[in-house]
Amino acid sequence: MQFSSSRLFSLLSWQASGKPSRGTTTYAPLVADPDRGDDVLLAHNQFKQSNQHALKKLIASGLIFLVGILLGNAVGRIPQKEIIQCNVASAESETLLYCTQVLIRQVIDSHVNRSILIPLFPAPAQDAVQYEVRRFNASFRTDITKYQGTPTEEIDKNWEDLYRYGVNQIPASEANKLVDKTVPIPGDEDNYIVTLEVFHQLHCLNLLRKSLYPDHYPTSLVNHLDHCIDILRQALTCTVDINPLSWYWYEPRKATETKLDGAHKCIDFEKIQEWAYEHRLQTVFDDSVNIQLGHGDHEHHDV
């Protein structure tokens, strides 16, 4: 015999007197009744097993959900609205597993959009990362910045200030997390030397700028431009700025042009500069000392 859920709950609500309960939630124990047959007890056992299975599934889903939250915290502080979206999704879904899938997908999306794979590629300056909406300068015609123009001492200083503290030191606890291991600082072996890639890239970009004015700068400063060009190519295709550029009608030219001064989602560069200053190298780095060998005269490589 097959039982609908309503009939099963009606059978479960019989009291000891054998009459259906009215206005009460007291249930009598369900036992096999030879007069009714064993189908009621069988249905009860099936119902109990179904509940146990559902409970186990709920517990497993909850554990996965908690792991997802922990993963989100490890990835880098998922915005609260993403957690809320997941909770809303779970309320509308049949099981908590759907919510877990949503959360993990959001974790991965958020993770990739940051362009920093924290669990695999720890970044010492990660805690300094803050996002902002910044409107670009068109850097064209009359809309130029303090980094443009014929070389002057002031322009040179503006560029050098961008990466003035580009060589930094981090403690061994941070250095041990790096995928590409670095070396301790001679005379200060508790700290290790690093350079954030953005400062290397700005250094290269400045050399490219100087190459435009060969009469103003020594050629020795621009002798590895090919390296710099390809480093910047790799950087651009790694970070991949997908902020869209709009188009507009430019009346003076009677033509539609790309709007170059649009809004962009950016990492606050000043926060990274502050981190670099706080972690600036405190001693003169002797690159002739090989810490691993304990003496100097090691092989040099031009950067």
TrEMBL record:
Taxonomic superkingdom? Eukaryota
Gene Ontology biological process: mycotoxin biosynthetic process
Give me the segments passing through the membrane.
Answer: none
- Pfam families of this UniProt entry? UstYa
Q: In which pathway does it act?
A: Mycotoxin biosynthesis
Family as reported in the entry's similarity comment:
Belongs to the ustYa family.
PANTHER family in the record? CYCLOCHLOROTINE BIOSYNTHESIS PROTEIN O, YALI0B05434P
Which named protein is this? Answer: Tat pathway signal sequence
Q: Which organism is it from?
A: Lentinula aciculospora
